[in-house]
Each structure stands twice: as structure tokens, then as C-alpha cells.
Amino acid sequence: MKQNLSSDFQERANKNNGVGEKQQISMPYNIELLSILKDAVIITDENFKISYWNPAAEEIYGWKSSEVLGKTAKTVLRTKFIGNEQPNTSKMLSEKGSYENEFLQFTKKNFPLYISSKIVTITDGNGVVNGHISINRDMTATKNTEKKLKRSYNILNSIVENTNDAIYLKNLSGNYIMVNTATSEIMGKPISEIIGKNDWDLYHGEDAEVITTEDKEIIENIETLTYEESLYSEREGEIRDYITTKGPYMGFDDSILGIFGIGRDITHLKGVEERIVKSEQKYRRLFETMIQGVVYQDSSGKITSMNPAAEKILGYSLAEIQGQKPQDIVQESVHEDGSEFLAEEFPSYLALNTGKEIEDVIMGLKIPSGYRWLSVHAVPLIGDDDKPFQVYTTFNDVTDKIVAQNELKKSEKRYRSLFNKMTEGFALHEIVCDSNGEPVDYIFLDINPAFEELTGLKREDIIGRRESEVIPEDTVNWVKIYGEVALEDVSIHFNEYSSALNRHYDVLAFSPGKNQFAVIFNDISQRVRIENELKETLRQLKLTNSELKQFAYIASHDLKEPLRVITSFLQLLQRRYKDQLDEDADEFINFAVDGAIHLHELIDDLLEYSKINTRSDEFTCVDFEDVLKIVETNLDILIKENNVFITSGKLPKIRADKTQMIQLFQNLINNSIKYRSVKSPEIHISATNNGDKWIFSVEDNGIGIPSKYSKQIFKIFKRLHDSYEYNGTGIGLAISKRIVEKHGGTIWVDTERINGTKFNFTIRSG
Asked: Cα–chain-centroid distance for residue 279?
């Protein structure tokens, strides 16, 4: 729109421009009014040179009027249009007479300003353009505020839309007027189906009743409250737990417009809380029942709590020591080496002072429960200031272990003493294998002094060296023997001759650890020599025994035959010439016959004695009840003639030579009958088990045997009576003794018996 100003203003302006003065000329009243406007007023000529610059312009742009008069507005204001397209200002002013826009301009100090401007063309009465007047308003602060508000809105909207909490507004009628995405998700409905609806439309009746009651309380009291709600979720199809904060939604005039709400689904938190409670209960049960002692101390080291196991181990109740420090309740504390445990060395104090875990400290404590050894582990609890505010200590009672270790040390000391003093050689070795795992050598790790004595090898010459270096020329493949022991973890016992050492050894080899073997050995060279000598002696004895057998054969055949002839002819002389010669001749013939008969019996008994070890039946299970019956049958005539009474207890079954057992019993019973007293013979046989053997007894009521002859009677041909008193050869008990000894037993006469005789003998059970 074109404007007409008074000619007075025009003249003044033209005059001012004509003289080129920079000082602003006086204005008519309507121009003076421009000086009090808060907007910048800039008047330019038709070439856009500045002719007027009001005080507001000075304040907004920082240029004094005197500094800009006569300069073009483009030079002073440095206008930059907002947007990609620059409008043709001159064309728009020419066509329309005015122009409005918003753009950037700059102050004197180059500070950008957001300007809202209106430019109007000034013409004379003929329509000729004389200049322009521009009214510029600084919108920088307003625009910045709008930007901040927009940014705040965007931030708030981002928070509202991205939070997992339901956020909503309701008017006083209870209708939802705003909900965020989380509300939509929790309700299980799109936002369009929630806005404008109330809780009766969206929830079950009972849930809606709860919600509206809460809302009414908020509106009536105009206060913000927090509720825990259990509502049915359409989306989840179950009852869910929520915590909701509700408050009044106020207008600018402090009038209540409705309520706001922020709700959170805490169903999972409820579960977590329950699990935490259960976890705490489990922890408490663990704390109360664990076998490890646990003690809590504060930052100063004072005891605050402990579990029952700690009370049991320490011998104190919590009430007795709560609030005290460990050094106050311990009578004495020592290290494993017996040195004193200073208070600052206690694991709990070290943990508090360093902030680090202190592990596996062994402490010896003298406490009410006795002298105990504990294995202690202290853990500091670190606060927000990165400093320990508490420490808990766990400990095990390792008294038995430490005592055992001490005993082990003593045992090792005793072992070392035994190791050094034992007469058997001992050596520990490590096997050496090739790439295929086959043993090819072994290394000497340790030997005892006896090893040196028994082998002639010195410790300093062999420890750490290989067998192939120490005894390279031995004919025995020791590596093969010991490789099996070390690699297969077996034990072997053997005798071997070492050609390199020229000695015989009795060796026990075993594996005390992986790829290791140990040997315990004796030098048996002398024993081997003696054994060889014994073998030779045995060979000679066998040869002699064979010759004795030949002698026995000769005695039984070659000697008995002429003796039989002599005896037969002597008996013939006795029958034919009895009473035909004188009395001396009869007596001499009787003596000769008796001598021949006695010699015959003697030869038979001697042969029988010699056959005990050279001829016998195999051992079988012998029923001694049967043995006794057979003996009674064999001696039947003798038993009847002498009116003998035989009794017995329960007799066993034992593996033995049955024939020799019959002979043994028959000899002893016959002996009891022979040496009878004036009374009828009474014989009793019994047997008792004594572990690995049976003890048999044969006792009678005969004349007895003086104790001084208790050992002589078992010697061959030993007789206590002359043959004219009691017949016999005196070899029966010697035969009995040999039979018993062949069965691994012994025979003796009871010397404490006063009346009669009691023979005892043993037979092995097996």
C-alpha cells in the first residue's frame, strides 16, 4: 500500500539527503512518535539508503543513528532470508506497495536476530517512489522460547510415549482425554478405543468400582495419592498387580480440570519380592544351619552377629561377645609356627584395612571350647564411598587336620629315622619313557643308608642319575621289571641276581605315585648260598634215604628169611628135645627161641618205624568215630581177655592218613592195656577244638608213668620195664610220635596226672 506523508516531512528529508548530513533532522509530530516505539523504525530513500534510524533500532541492532545514516540497509542489516527461495523484495514493493516477512539480520557485533518486518513504499502525490519505511520487531527471544517449548514438548512426549508406565489424563466426568502407548498396551486396546471412554466402559464392574472410588478421593481432597491395585488384564487374561500414582489435573486459574495417573505393572516385582523373601529365608536357614562358622563385624571390628556354628566352634553365645572385638575374647592366638598372632594381623582387620578378601589363614586360638585351629576367610563389604563398612568372616574348625598334620610331621620324622636306620635297602625311582610311552630307563630319586651298604653304591654318585649310567652292564633287565610296576601300579616280590653287583637280592617293588616305583630289598647272597648247600644236603639225604629204603628191603627179606629159618629150627629143637637133655639145655634152648622171636618182632617194628615217612596214604576226610571202631575190632580178643572198658566223647572228622590214625590209636590203647593195674582197664578218648587244631586225649587207670620219664618214653627202643615184665620192643610210642608229627602235631604225656596215664596229641584241623 502506498502512503502519502506531509510535504513538510518530505522537504526535510530531501534537504537532509541533499546536504549529505548524517545528523537526523527534526521531524513533524507524527515522525516524533516513531522514536518512542519499541520496534525498530528504519526509513530509507528510493535506493534503500538509511535516512531515519529510531532509538529502538539503535537498541536492537547496536548501531548509533549517526553510524548508519546514508548507508544502505543491505550493508548495515545483512539480511538473510529463511528458506531456500529468496523473494524479489523490490518487485513486491513496486507491485503491492508493501512487504511482510521474517528473516535473519545481524547486530553490530554480528549477533543474529530473528526479525519480523513490514516494509511500506513512500510516494509523493504523483505516485513517485521517494523511499521506504520498515518496521522491524525482534522475535529472537520469542522464537527461542518457542524452540525451548517445542524441545521440552518433544522431550516430554518422547518420555511419555517411550516409558513402560501407563500415563493418562481424565476429565472430571472420568472420561479419558489423553493416554500414552503404554496405557494402550496395558489395557489391551488401541488409543482410539480408550479416548472418551470411562473406566466402566473399559474394566470389569468390580475393578471399575475400585478405580472410580480412588478418583473421587483425589478430586475431593485435591491431593496426590499412591495405590496398589489388582485388576483383570484383558491382554494377559489374568489378574495383574499395579502401583498407581494419581493426582489432580489443574488449570491456569488453579481450578481442577480432572486427574492424571501414572501406573506401573508390578506383577513381576511382586514375584521378585516373594523370591527375595524366600531367598532371604533360605539364606537365613543356610546361615543358621551351615557347618561353617560365620561372624559379622562392623567397620571398627566389633562383632555384630554370628551363626550357631560359630557359637559352637568358639564356645561363646552371641549375647556374650556382641559389641566386642576378636582380640578381646581370644585368650591366645598363634600362627602355625607357634608365633603370636597380632591383632592387626587378624584376617577381619586385614580385610577392613585393605578392602581385599583374605583367604585361608590358619589360626590357633585358645578359647572356652579349648585350643582350636581354624581356617579363616574374611570378605569386606564395600560401601558407595568405596570403603569397607562391614566384614564377614567364615571359618572351619581344622583342629583334627592340623593335629593330624603335626602327627604326620612327627610320623615323617620317625619315618625318616626309620628310613635311615632300617637294615633293608630302600630306593625311590622315577621311570623314564620314550615317545611311545615305553619304559627305557629310570632315575634314582632317593636311597637310604642301608641301600649304600647292601649295594656298594654311594648316594652322591647315583641320586638324579639314570640306571643305565649307574649299572650299565647288569644282565638283569631292571627297566622292564620296574616299568610294569610304575606304569601299571602293581606290586611284585621276587628274587634276582645282579651280575654287576655280584649279589642276590630279595626285592619288593611297588608304585607310591604316578610314574614312580620304590623298592625294599635285602642282600640274600648268604641265604642263597646256604639254600644251595641245603639243596645239596637234601640231595644227599634223598640218596641216603634211598639207600635206607634198600636197607629196609634187605632187612625185610634177606634178614627175616634166615631169622625165620633159625627161629623155626630152634622151636623144632624145643619141641623134640624138651626134657630129653638136662635142665640147662632146655633153658638155653628157651632163651634162644625167645631171643629169635624178640629179634623178629624188633625187626618188624623197626621196619614199621622207618616206613612212617616213606610210605603213607593220601590225606582224606577221616571220621575218628570209625577209626575207634576199627581199633576196637582189631583188639577185640585183647580187650575181652583183659576185661577192658573203653568210652569216648564226640570225635571229629579231620583230613588225615586213616591207616596211620588207626595205627596211632591202636598203639596208645594197646599201651594202656599192657600197663594195666590190678583193676580192670578203663580207657577214655576225647577231642576238643582249638582253632587250627584238635587236641585228642587218651587216658587210662593204669600204673602211670613217672614225670621224670615223660620225654624219654618217646625215644626209639626206650623201655621203662624189662621184657620179662612187659613184653614189647619199646618202639610203639616212637612210632606214635612220628605219626603225630607227620600230621603237623605234637604228642606229650600229662605229667600232672597222679593216677593212671593221659596221653595228649594234636592234629591240624585243615
From this structure: 24
Bridge partners, 101 (sequence order): 117
Rg from Cα positions in the chain: 66
- Pairing verdict, β 129-138 and 40-45: antiparallel
Q: What share of the chain is helix, strand, coil (3-state, %, to 5)?
A: 45, 30, 30
Task: Mention every residue, 6+ apart, whose C-beta is less than 8 A from residue 410.
Answer: none
Amino acid identity, residue 152? S
Amino acid at residue number 220? E
Give the tens place of pLDDT for each residue, 191-238. Answer: 888 898 888 988 888 888 888 888 888 888 888 888 888 887 777 778
Contacts of 561 (CB under 8 A, 6+ apart): none
Report whether 712 contacts 733 (CB < 8 A).
no
Q: What is the dihedral of CA 242, 243, 248, 249, to 10 degrees?
A: -60
The letter for the amino acid at 613 is N
Instruction: For 551-591, write each residue's pLDDT tens digit.
Output: 665 665 556 667 667 777 777 777 777 777 777 777 777 76
Statement: residue 475 has pLDDT above 60? yes
For residue 762, report the phi and psi dihedrals to the nearest 5 degrees: -115, 145
As a whole number of angstroms, the distance between CA 154 and CA 163 comes to 14
Residue 89 φ/ψ, nearest 5 degrees = -60, -45
Distance CA 208, CA 316 (A): 60
How long is the chain?
766
Question: Which positions ≥6 away from 260 have C-beta within 8 Å?
Answer: 167, 168, 169, 170, 246, 247, 248, 249
CA of residue 207 relative to chain centroid, distance = 55
Question: Lowest mean pLDDT: which of 342-346, 587-591, 647-651?
Answer: 587-591
Cα separation, 720 vs 730, in Å, equals 9
